Every structure is written in C-alpha cells, then in structure tokens.
From TrEMBL:
Ranges in coiled-coil conformation: none
Species in which this protein is naturally found: Lacinutrix venerupis
Record protein name field: Succinylglutamate desuccinylase
Residue ranges of every copy of the Succinylglutamate desuccinylase/Aspartoacylase catalytic domain listed in the record: 49-228
This protein's record includes keyword Hydrolase: yes
Amino acid sequence: MINKTNDILEILGEKIGLGESKEVAFNLAKLHTRTPVDVPIIIERSKKPGPVILFTAGIHGDEINGVEIVRQIIAKGINKPRIGTTICIPVLNIFGFINMEREFPDGRDLNRVFPGSKSGSLASRVAYSLVSEIVPHADFIMDFHTGGAMRFNAPQIRIAEGNKDIDIAAEIFGAPFVLYSKNLNKSFRNTCKRLKKPILLFEGGKSFHIDNTVTNTGVNGAKRIMSHYGMLHKKFKVSTPKKDCVFIKESRWIRASYSGMFKASIAIGAKVKKGDVIGNITDPYGKFNHFVKTSNGGYIINVNESPIVYQGDALFHISTKLV
C-alpha cells in the first residue's frame, strides 16, 4: 500500500498543506505577443496523508475526450480525496488544444520528446518541467488519450507486459480491453516506467470528439482506482464493470485493399469470426463494391470512421491472441 506522510507538498514553488486545495500555474512559455501561457494544475489534499495520484490528459491537443474525462473528475468533485492527494492536469498541450492541433507550435509531438530538456525545443522544455517538477510527487499516474484522426478506439488500457502490479491495476480500472503494447521510446509512459512510477494509459474514442460511453468508462475507472487506494469519498459509488476485462496479448491492423468510399458494418468492441464481413469499400459511381472480411477471429478494438480511404489505410484493429 502506498502511503505518503509529508505534511507539505511543494509544486512549482507553491506549498500545499494537508487539507488544502490550490490551483497552481504551470507556466509553459510566452506567446510571441509576450502574453504568458499558463496551464492550471488543480491540487486537492485531504487532511489525512496518503497516496498521491496524478491525472493527466491533453498531451495531444486534439484528444478532447481525454480532457473531458479529467474535467468531469474535477467538476464532480471526485478529485477531492478522503486520504492523500490528487493532482489534475486536464490539458498538457494547451497550444495544440487552443489551435485544435495534435502537436506543439514547434511541430513536435509532446509524447515523443520525454523526458525532455531544460534547454531544448518548446515541447521538450514542457516535458522536462512535467517530469522534474510534478511527476516525482506522484505515486500513481493515469494518462488519458483518444484514437488519432478518424480512428475510433474502443475504451482500453494500454500497458507493457511483465508487471503484475500494473496488470492488477488495469483490471481494477475496469475498461473492456487491456492491450499489451511496448513502451515507445521518449514517450511519457516509458519515462514513467524508468522513474518507477506506475502508470495506466487510457485510450478511447477519436480526436475532436466526445463520446459518452468512453467518458463514463474513463471516469468510472478513475473512481475504481481511487477506491482501491482508499481515496474515493464515501458519497461516490463504485460500479462493477459490465464485462470482465479482455487482456489482449497480440493484435494486427486490417488494411484497405482498395481506395474508395468506406463504411464499417461492425460495432466497436464486437467479437468476430474468421471470414466475417465487417465493412465494404465502394466507388462513387456504383460500379464497385468490395467486402472487407476478417482474416482471423478476435475483438474489434479500433474502427476507422473516415468515409474516404486509400489503399493501405488501416481500417480495423483486431486482436489476434488473448492472454
């Protein structure tokens, strides 16, 4: 059991005592107009010492559903713990969020520059500040993401294989799927692993979109984790997941054999058999119709919702091997 006993928590020069609430300004940079750009960090501390949980979202500026999950955690008061401390950062990439873009103004993907550099690019400096100033205080981290572009992810937790404690945490979170995936070099998740900070990465939905099912899954998962550590206030109920988590060891993409107009005919999260028709590709003139079939049985964990696709585009993400 994680247990913090420090009476004073100091973040970015601000001191927060037990029982205090504070919004701390995470100063990222200044605009070319010299206007400062601050990211609010919402900190809630119980009068009783305990674990410190860090909630992050918006590493990619276009992943709005992750931001919505952390927003709801704050708005509903879930982040006010019975014991311990919560630190919420709903939007890390405020530049991308404002401009409705995935990357930073310097063109860099924030999730590919960790642990960052004090004197590097803008994105690298933000990564460095997060890792050096905030992450060291956390005992457990939940990072919320969505699918990219028009690809809709089923609600899922992504973790690296080989850590039983993280496996247990993923199961407690209660998303429908847990996908084993390697930690990408210079990602936030990989940096947290190197710092020995347990982290769950949640994926659900798609960019520029808010989905109620995805949001509810993320919020309920956060409540279960907080409840597990004794941090969730008694006024909040912890629901039991409707289905057991499916742990996926291996998966593959089903790609378009032809270019054309695309329509999926299978629900996200559905279980399919080899040879099932799960979509079709047509042309605008009514002369061509290609049925997309599965090459193996498994669960559909991502669906491309773009109406236009090109040959080679990823259409579906399907499990190939379960744990």
